[in-house]
Give the backbone structure.
Amino acid sequence: MNHDQNLFVQAEMRALLDDLPAELVVRHPVQFLMHLDHIRQRATQHHLTALHDLSCALETALQPAIKNGGATTVVRFYLEAMRATLDCEEISPAMTEALMANVALRLGGQP
């Protein structure tokens, strides 16, 4: 991907992430999940594997977080990590795992 195209993709994905407020998960969980799925689809189209993987991990983490409380906090940490993936040119699978481990550590759990 050339530099200009990369900047366009980053701007598009940032806008999608910015349009997903963490509080939406509590107020309208289905709408939140639909928006998250759209982000995952666009990440796949743009070959942003780390962003895709983090969106999948967020979806997996949501069910217990909604049930036990704290879903907004979980979403905030994941969205922050998802935004961080856009700051890098290429992210290896090991870097993706490190981002997910960082989120898990911040949430007080195990990666």
